[in-house]
């Protein structure tokens, strides 16, 4: 699957195939609904290609296997879902401190705890803010279509190596399970030169060590400052988003991941009803496109955040708006996605209330 | 244009596969399309369903509250999804397993003995493909030639020998 | 003049051990470095380090090292090896790291027959945090978290690591050695060499448990600590080779 021919494919399989095309040399994983198909797909493909595949004993082991593999300069990934991604937080903190290019795919299900397998978007905070210790940041990409699952998987492997930083591809159960036509093309990103840091054996040079802590306080402090300078560069270069009809909009619907589809449709319906709605959709949840949201808020445009959780991205939108305009939330914790009709009627009510209040 | 279809039946009746063939047919017609299953524990026995949305534009919500078409192969699915058909929409039912009834008067009903028609071909396994033939006969936007290509795509090289049987099944209803 | 002693080539030239005086870690690390030299492995070695007293191993050994989180060294080593089947990969861990928090990773690495070597230092205590009860703390042993001595009702039993690893079908070699006497040190080096060699020969998981003294946390002189290794540890943790598939082949 390396041409531009469209194939009807599940999001999970699309991610798996894109990882192969991106040059992923090793996959380590543990079954977890609703992303198990990724491991199933790769369990036959990787050996065929002479690449590494391990059914790890746990998600803990899986992500640490990834750390081992990527520290040697190869591309590797693990995939899992919400409550099992929670198990990986320690390793993500290490991977950030170690500056190793871990790629993790999280096909979200519900929470807290076991959360059953309903689709949900409750891992925004877990991905963007992380559950690991210390000051660290992860690059988080949120696809909204199966085609974007392909494109952002390519991008995830590239960004991880380019910045020597973990990248999370944050999908959801809906995207993982649905089929949609997608084409794979060629991985559009160049190979990153890893020779200055990868562990390849101390041949003709001193032994190299990759580690997150220094026994010398000054060095440790410097290490954190260096990491954060890197995060600034990432924010400058890699922040990405889509926006639709925001120019004349009074109210901007905002969502991430597959909910983007629904707010785009809701926007059209609202416009037909005479409400000037626009759409704003962050592609990188981290770095978050705060600057652009702030620009739009300064123009007096209100924001409505639509998400399948109790209001997680809401906080980042509020932070970005900085009180310049009104921010509201339309949400449900998990399960059936908020329908276009539900979004439209909620927005209509908000507009009526605002009108009645004279604002 | 955006239309959606719910396909439902017993686990084992090949309903997800029928949905995959239908979605492939729409893709081959250069339409935007999504296929979304009920998944997880629901897949273990009992009824199973999938939803196909086809659109000239980008598909919005892949899982909608109501549907333009419901294709149901068993009684439980009929009872469940007859309530979710849009006013003016159509429910297409396998009368081999579904008792003919008309609980609403604002939708269209098509009953066809899909199971029996499949048995005429020697196997009830192709009930799902027979049902797609029925769907194509009553729904303008579903193209039988594209369905045939969809079947070929889904069967692939490995199961190519099953193609003639399935094409026959597709053409059972006229 | 004949040179009778030198620092192994595979050790950093300016290293300063962070181990306590009298601790056996220093001997173990040196044995590993000597073997890497003698077996010509330096240029193809990648070590998966651990958390505990061994945490700064990368400051002593002049080989490539990846820092694994606590308990995960065998998982990281698996990742390194699967990505680089031609490299020589080993872990160097304490008993808490290998057999308590990391027991699942350690066991499964052995069960998969992962072609890596693992070295586990057993000193019957959590050394770096100041001498708490660990998975290998022997019955009756007083630690900061078993002040009345390890007892069955509260604490259960210590694990015999080398025997357990030997039971795994993927294990090619498993042995327990000690560093209290020169003959034992020589035996230890032989065992380590075997554990390394089975990896190079593609036979499976190689494992060596090293009984080690911890004078600081045992509150003993180095000499008394070695006496304890002999008199209290060896009866519970007998020295020996528990599995060697190369011997079975013969």
Describe the structure in your own words.
- The complex is a heterotrimer of chains A (359), B (174) and C (250).
- With 359 residues, chain A is an alpha/beta fold.
- Chain A is 42% helix and 19% strand.
- A seven-stranded mixed sheet of chain A has the order 3-2-4-5-7-6-13, with helices on both faces. A five-stranded mixed sheet of chain A has the order 10-12-11-14-15, with helices on both faces.
- The N and C termini of chain A lie far apart (54 Å).
- The model of chain A has no long low-confidence stretch (mean pLDDT 95).
- Chain B is an alpha/beta fold.
- Chain B has a single domain, classed as Pyruvate-ferredoxin oxidoreductase, PFOR, domain III (Pyruvate-ferredoxin Oxidoreductase, domain 3, 3-Layer(aba) Sandwich).
- Chain B has a six-stranded mixed sheet, sandwiched between helices.
- Chain B is globular, with a radius of gyration of 15 Å.
- Chain C is built from ten helices and seven strands.
- Chain C is globular, with a radius of gyration of 17 Å.
- Chain C starts with 24 loop residues before the first helix and ends with a helix.
Architecture of the largest domain in chain A in CATH?
3-Layer(aba) Sandwich
- The rounded distance between the terminal residues' Cα atoms of chain B is 26 Å
CATH class of the largest domain in chain A: Alpha Beta
Mean pLDDT of chain B: 93
- Helix/strand-derived category of chain A reads alpha/beta
- Strand order across the largest sheet of chain B: 2-3-1-4-5-6
* Radius of gyration of chain B, taken over Cα atoms and rounded to an integer in Å: 15 Å
Radius of gyration of chain A (Å): 21 Å
Total strand segments of chain A: 15
- CATH architect. name of chain B: 3-Layer(aba) Sandwich
Number of helices of chain A: 13
- Coarse morphology of chain A: globular
Provide the β-strand percentage band of chain B: 25-35%
CATH topology type of chain B: Pyruvate-ferredoxin Oxidoreductase, domain 3
The chain pair forming the largest interface, with residue counts per chain, is: A-C, 42 and 38 residues
Give the tags.
heterotrimer, A: 359 residues, alpha/beta, Rossmann fold, 5-stranded mixed β-sheet, 13 helices, globular, B: 174 residues, Pyruvate-ferredoxin Oxidoreductase, domain 3, 6-stranded mixed β-sheet, 6 helices, 6 strands
Question: What topology emerges from the helices and strands here?
Answer:
The complex is a heterotrimer of chains A (359), B (174) and C (250).
Chain A (H helix, E strand, L loop, with lengths): L6 E4 H11 L2 E6 L6 H13 L3 E4 L3 H12 L4 E6 L1 H5 L2 H10 L4 E6 L15 H5 L10 E3 L4 H18 L3 E6 H5 L1 E4 L26 E2 L6 H22 L2 E4 L6 E4 L4 H14 L4 E6 L1 E3 L3 H9 L3 E6 L5 H9 L5 E5 L8 H17 L3
Parallel strand pairs in A: 2-3, 2-4, 4-5, 5-7, 6-7, 11-12, 11-14, 14-15
Antiparallel strand pairs in A: 1-8, 6-13, 10-12
Chain B lengths: L1 E9 L4 H14 L3 E6 L9 E9 L11 E6 L2 H7 L3 E10 L13 E5 L1 H7 L6 H12 L5 H12 L7 H8 L4
Parallel strand pairs in B: 1-4, 4-5, 5-6
Antiparallel strand pairs in B: 1-3, 2-3
Helix pairs in contact in B: 1-4, 1-5, 3-4, 4-6, 5-6
Chain C lengths: L24 H14 L6 E5 L14 E4 L5 H11 L4 E7 H7 L1 H9 L5 E6 L29 H4 L5 H6 L4 E8 L3 H19 L4 E7 L3 H4 L3 H15 L3 E5 H5 L1
Parallel strand pairs in C: 1-2, 1-3, 3-4, 4-6, 5-6
Antiparallel strand pairs in C: 5-7
Helix pairs in contact in C: 1-7, 3-4
